[in-house]
Specification:
The protein is of the alpha/beta class and 381 residues long. The chain folds into two domains: 193 residues, 3-Layer(aba) Sandwich (Rossmann fold), CATH 3.40.50.2000; 156 residues, 3-Layer(aba) Sandwich (Rossmann fold), CATH 3.40.50. It has 15 helices and 13 strands. The strands form two sheets. Strands 3-2-1-4-5-6-7 form a seven-stranded parallel beta sheet, sandwiched between helices. A six-stranded parallel beta sheet has the order 10-9-8-11-12-13, sandwiched between helices. Helix 8 crosses helix 13 and helix 11 packs across helix 14. The longest helix is centred in the C-terminal third of the chain and has 22 residues. The radius of gyration is 21 Å and the shape is globular.
Length: 381
């Protein structure tokens, strides 16, 4: 089966969707084999010369601006991807909107529905196109891939997609070089937040809670915020630069993949108080590293962490401060939670996810054959 996968979100910086697509391709080619082609396009950014060998896939790279191509694909559904990348049996979009194709089965990826619930907190083409087009595109897709059962339910209820066409394909737990062999509670470790600094991540409440923690526990560890600062992050960055946080909290910025384990290695506690998460990859990464986790009781986070984390209401500043204090001062409780997190993380396997993705591709191709326009080539089940 010839598969074309959209790699553009991972071309510049592998955060969020980009990291998911990169690791998904790696796992798929390693466990399922198949004929996989990676599609990239940009006017100035080029893929790593080693990408094809690293992912065991061919690379089709076109010098076409992403915004221009997306505007044509989203609004005009033109040009067909065959013009840019040749003929394939399945075309997998990394986002909720279809990649136009004359003959291939079309698969879309929906990680969350934040673009519907909070459209004012999105920007550019996500704000312009996703709310208007995603429902119809998802219903037309031959398969929809998402990363949690929580979001699967939302896609069925809010986008009107047949649940049989929605496949839950969560990220797998990372394989660390040194972490993950037991609880990780360094005496001089910091409190870590990792993710884009944007409204749904609830950074303001985190800073309020940390300020309360420092007032109660003067010797509390530093707060480290790792991730790109979105346009709305200005007020939070200003707070970090002024007392009382100036000497206690640090914004590390975007952390590239090859430094990610080092960032986790310095952490004693991960805090993810998001108002909405389609999955919450940092929580899985921290659990797999043996780091205790505090998360909000919203979105997909309860599904991801199971019984192994401390839950807080994302609006409860005092509750978050108390949760941090307890895990920092009650070492036996932190160890128990870290052990539970290691066990929970083992439930997430890239090999199992790749098998589900393969089933989605095969089913999508069969549906494409049923509705006509098939390329006529056989598919191995």
């Amino acid at each position: 089966m010839r598969i074309l996968v959209d790699y553009r979100p991972a071309l510049r910086a592998r955060t969020g969707v980009g990291e998911y697509m990169h690791e998904l391709i790696r796992a798929y080619t390693a466990t399922q084999g198949g004929d996989v082609t990676i599609f990239t396009s940009s006017w100035k950014d080029r893929p790593d010369p080693q990408l094809a060998s690293a992912l065991h896939a061919r690379v089709v790279d076109r010098r076409v601006p992403v915004r221009a191509l997306n505007a044509l694909w989203h609004r005009a559904e033109w040009p067909p991807v065959e013009w840019l990348a040749g003929s394939h049996d399945v075309v997998h979009a990394a986002h909720p909107l279809l990649i136009p194709s004359r003959t291939a089965a079309q698969v879309v990826t929906v990680h969350d529905l934040f673009f519907l619930s909070e459209p004012t907190h999105t920007r550019a083409e996500i704000r312009r196109d996703y709310p208007a087009l995603a429902p119809a595109h998802a219903r037309r897709a031959d398969a929809v891939i998402t990363s949690s059962h929580h979001v699967r339910g939302l896609i069925a209820a809010q986008l009107g997609v047949d649940p049989e066409r929605i496949y839950v394909c969560p990220p797998g737990a990372p394989q660390w070089r040194t972490l993950g062999r037991g609880p990780h509670l360094p005496a001089d470790g910091y409190i870590l937040f990792i993710g884009t600094l944007e409204p749904r991540k609830n950074i303001g409440v985190l800073l309020d809670a940390y300020t309360q923690l420092v007032a109660r526990v003067p010797g509390a560890p530093r707060l480290m915020l790792a991730g790109r600062a979105a346009a709305a992050a200005g007020p939070w960055l200003d707070r970090l630069a002024a007392p009382p946080l100036r000497d206690r909290a640090t914004h590390l910025g975007y952390v590239p993949e090859d430094r990610r384990e080092d960032v986790y290695a310095g952490a004693r506690l991960l805090v993810l108080p998001s108002r909405d998460e389609g999955f919450g990859l940092p929580a899985l990464e921290a659990m797999s590293a043996g780091i205790p986790v505090i998360v909000s009781n919203r979105g997909s986070l309860p599904e991801v962490v199971g019984p192994s984390a401390t839950f807080i209401d994302p609006d409860d500043v005092a509750g978050l401060a108390e949760a941090m204090e307890r895990l920092l001062t009650d070492t036996p409780a932190a160890v128990r939670q870290a052990c539970a997190g290691l066990e929970q993380a083992r439930r997430f396997s890239w090999a199992e996810t790749a098998a589900t993705v393969h089933r989605a591709y095969v089913d999508a191709h069969a549906r494409r054959q049923e509705r006509g326009g098939d390329s006529g080539r056989s598919v191995t089940h």
